[in-house]
Amino acid sequence: MDFATNQFDLVDGQWRPRTVDVSTILRHFDDQDNHEMPPFQASPVLGLLTQTVIPAPLTNWILPLKARHPDYEDVAFIGDGFVQIKELRPDGRLWDVARKDNFGARIRNARVYGTLKTYDKDFLPDAGDVFGTPIKDEADDDVDIDMTDGHYRGLRPGDPRLPPQMIVLQLESNDTIFLMLCKSESGEWRVVSNRHRLSNAMHRHQPGMHLAIDPSSRYLAVGCAEGSFSIQALYPRQELNRQYTQGSTLNLVESERRLLVQGVIIKMEFLYPSADDDQHIILLVIQIYKGKTRMLLYEWTTGGDLKKVHAHNRKGHSLAEGRQVPLLLIPLMIKSSFIVISESSLEVCNDILIGSPQFREVDSTIIDSPTSLHHGTGTPLWTAWARPERLPYYNAEKDCVYIVREDGLIRCLELHTDDDLIQADMNIGYFSSNCGAALASLNYKGTHGRSGDYLITGGDSGTGAAYLIKARESPIFQQHIPNWSPANDLVTTSRDQDGDSEPSLTSRKKSNSKWSTGKNSEQVMAKPDQIFACVGKGSNGAVVEIRHGLEAHVGLDMDFEAPIENAWVLSLPNSLADKDGSLILVSTGRQSALLLLSGSGDTVSVIALNEEDSNFDLRFRTITADMHGDCKIQVTEKSIVHVDGLSGNRHIHEGVNIFGVLNDTEVVGVGIHILHAVIYDDIVLYTTEYAERMYLLILRTSELDSLLGESTSACPTQTLGSFSNITCLAIGLVGEEIWGIVAENPGTSLSLTFQSLCGANSFTITLPESYETSGTFPLGTICSIVVVPSSNDKNMSLLCGTSNGYALTLEIDVQSTKCVEFLCDHIGISSVLIRRDKLSSSRTIFLAICDSKVYSFTFQNRRMVRQNRNGSHVKREIHRVFFTSILDSKYAQPDINAVAKFPSGTCGGVDDTFLCVSGSILLIFGLSDQPNAVLRRIPVGGTPSRLYFSHNLQLLVVAANIDKKSTLIFLDPETGEDVSKPYDKKTGTATDFIYGLGNKDEKIHRLAEWQVSKDTKKWNFIILCTNLGQVLLISVERESHPSPGSLLPKLRYYTRHKFKSGEPIYSVTSYADGIIYCTGRTLHLDVLDLAEKRLKTIAEFEISSPATNLVYKEPGEVYALTATHSLEILRIVGTGENKQFVRTHGDQVARDSLHHRILCSSLSGEHSMEFSSVPDSSQNQSLEEPTSLRAPLHLVSDKSACVAGLWAISNTKADTLETIFEAELLVSIVKLRYGNCRPIWDPTWSIKIGGNMDVATSIPINTAKYPEILGIAIDGSLFNFTILDQDAWRFLRFLVNIAKQSSLVCELDQEEEDLRELVPSIKPKTMMHIDGDILRRCLDGQYLEELLLIHENTDKAREVQALFKELLSGLHRCSFKAALKGQRSDKNAAEALNGNHSNAEEVEVTHEHDIEDLVLQAYKDLEYFLRPVI
User: Fold this and answer.
1) Digit-coded pLDDT (tens) for 416-466
2) Which of these, 47, 373, 1207, 1339, could form a disulfide with 407 (CB 3.0-4.6 Å)?
3) Which residues, at least 6 apart from 431, have a Cβ–Cβ distance to it below 8 Å?
4) What angle do CA 799, 805, 808 make, to 5 degrees?
5) What are phi and psi of 576, to 5 degrees?
6) Angle made by CA atoms 1121, 1124, 1125, in degrees to the nearest 5
7) In 3-state terms, what secondary structure has residue 477?
């Protein structure tokens, strides 16, 4: 019998019952199934490339060590995943030496291994047998340290001695790593590692929570969190030297024993034995078991059997109630005693070896009140200690330690061997920052008597610092130690931070904030987005601008009080040999001046010298100056001066002697001025003008005496030729032949003429007037040329700067007189003026000035896959130079118009010191060796929690807590000035806080902007929501004039509307007619009632968990990122006030979400890209129906350090968000932001006239046409996320797979070799992630040849290479012929320069072409994918 039921239908506004049976219901659903549904839209196959743009700055340990030689003051900064070795130099600053990152696991603990006492034994006479040859005395040249040379000698290739000390790391992977510094063949320092694996039985108890090395460095103790610890006997240094000399892998561990303990281990340290018993080993372990704290003591003799080691007393020595949880355990060098510091006491313990330990309390330490940096309400805790370096006679009877409190208090404890032990307890002063566990003391020996203890702290919740501690003086600040963790928020100046795609190129071109226009109306200059983050906590909280480049530390600035055109730095003549300093020759508009710079640090003096004292010609404007040995040469516009350095004699040549234009030996004319000049050793090449022609002349100063001795009327110059319009000169060496280079612009084309200065050979190369690779932009004239040293003695490399902001790199084959390579980089709009930095290192640096900014060009020879065919390839890197000052953390970048370098050893004995000119100001700065993060710090005086960049105001809006009260701060991003002015609209007066803010312990959760329009009027509001349930609408008004002491007008802001909820409001966003916000688990839609002038709720919706981020997109999509249920997509439906939320999609996986970003392909719509949906990309299947990327891609980060890509599946019975890729990172990403931050010379900024982006390669700029995404983690590390199409993902995934199976790339986390694992697979979704850091190691180390088994003839090698060829061909979406055309694009451009257009276009490459050429193409592809992000 059929079952029937009643159903109510709405008819004419009334509900009426209707009887429905089961058959009717089933027929209804059958009809639905048979009805034609819209086609199912599958998700595309996309990959995710991640790169670490800036690693985390957080330092957990700072360890002083002698990593190269006892005379070096090295120090190791160690974080969760990096080891950075720095050197303290005589200028009082820390300089980079070497760095290592790829450990494959988190660093759990670190210590220094090795003693100088055992290192000194290497130089004893009987130590020669270890190395096979006698060891030279320390006074030998190979060991002497020349402190005046910035590039010290040390462990060189083939040196048979190990460094004095090493670093021991304990990783979470159960590995003990020994690190040491060695010099590579190129002369650079590199970190070499050796690994020892601990027992697997210790792995589950977190080995390395405690790490200790005994004072003789013969034993290493590795403690777990509980249950056990390991004692490792290390080989003596003599045995390690023997292993090192034989070239074998170091095996440092001789034997090992695991000991069991009961309870939790809280401290473990080796104690110092008595001075006459250095074979005595003492290990102290403090444990907690059953609520009681006990000290266990282990003793044995060096070389003894570890199996016999056991605790003196199994129960140990109990600690009193006040010492139950010690904060610090400090071993002392006297009496085997130690210091125990707890929360409320500091005690010295001795006599532990002879019976019951005796404790003596130091009462004075508890009377120091907390400083303003203290965050908590209780007593500040002692967090770190460091032992300063003292002489041996001092250490025989005394010991000295510094202890530091978390709020910056520094105390010095001095102890003596007498019965009282504590001899002095001194309050040294205060640090200006909070202090964590990272603290170190170095022995600083500076110039001019500046010496003392150099204390370094890594900081805690803010920047660290370095201080010089001198006797009876307060700490002297030396420099900041960068630390921008924790990072709470991130913004860029991108115009669409909450949008679904980046603005079009056309809109970018029209926007002044994004683009600048040059002299030519068609020339457009990019302005990359700036990156800002709110970091720190308490009074050290700040907003930082994150930049990447070379840091220029400004140490001194002087006002010359007259505009300076150029400057040169020269060494002192013999007449001023008693002075310590340098000469600065400056050129003004009409004359020159000479300054004597002497002293260093706080004792610098500047004296102006007259012409008689200087031997220079100061009457005229100087064009160039240089030194040749002991001689100095100055070229002014009307004279050439040659000063003999030995005798001090000066020769001034002027008039017909230098301006005479010769025809053979006959003077046919006389010029008036020197227009251009260049000096090379004793050669002066210059130009003068006569009869509307420019003449090239040469003067050899070494021949002056002989020429002038024969006849006073003899002309010492030689005329090399005439030209129509010379723009600049250069001199270079090819083999043993010196060439003069003349840049000319005759009006029809650019040309370079090469004139041999040793003979009559010459040739000319014509350059194009415009750069046509990415549009047609005029290059302008060549205004500067420098010669790049090349390892090829047949070629000449040139770096040229043009008047339109281009830097050209040319490779000239002198024998064939052709240009074989032509590269062009757009770095600005104005003239590019280039100067060479003459450094005696493995790389060559050139400093270029363009648009009043300084850039560095670095050239370094890199080995290539086929030296016999391709020759040496020159690696070129470009970096911006950012100026910083220790006196001003938000130092504004000066406008630079000239730069020069100090000769080595002339500026306080420090190399890499430069002079630059900014108008009338002379700046002296030290330039960093390696590019790093260079932060501009803008203090806010409180804890910043949220950050927003307002394009309407062009200001940074900061939500902060100052004195634990909520407020808003408005900052100018260029100057860092605070322009905020809280205002009370009713009273018309300024206030401390606007209405609704200033509440205790209130936190602002979100900031947004809302624009309200009515008729032709518009109002802009700032919206914020707080944890106290408030929503504020804030209005802003800019004052008309700056207030006294300010550069910018203040911004008055006040509360326009406020309402409050009973629950916290986690997120808010603007809606067309109102706002959307989440209070508790409820979404609210409020619209503006214009009649009542208030917000009114018209719709609500209950979600699974609170929405921490909301984004609204037309025509009604709401994207709600929930706290524990990932992303939910809703749609607002209805009209007027009859609107409601309808849920459309949700994630299938519950995620503890952090942030969300919507990405739309730039080709969505009619130009959408085609992607295939295939079950497994490893199978060569034909492409099915293409899928247009019309739906957005969602990037979601969560607390499990995962970043997932979600795709909305449509036209199914249960529409969901499908995961198309997952990236497992080491840290969680707290914020994801759009950002076009790549440098201006990046190919993504290349624009054709039509507005389309293009580059000179067959790979698209962004293979999936998605915007660039940046993400920041709580520890401050910055990441880049790039979406890849299937072909790019397959190629890069193959390289990652093969790299993971190689010890060259993944030396500490290598996977087992398996050919089947090399084939890219889309399952699991984590395989869609490409780790760009692994690829970076392959590129930097040039490992592709080894990974692809290029030089092997095996079945495995052929299989690997066949797969490589297939994937590389797929990447370029063409045959090998087309793929290799991109490789030869540089040569094609050069062929076009030489007029051989047919040769450039007819490059034929067959499938049988050598695999090595494909490897070369792969290197170029990697360089493109991994190019700089900021």
Assistant:
1) 887 677 888 889 999 988 999 999 999 998 876 678 999 999 998 889 999
2) 373
3) 404, 408, 409, 410, 457, 465, 467, 475
4) 25
5) -115, 25
6) 65
7) strand
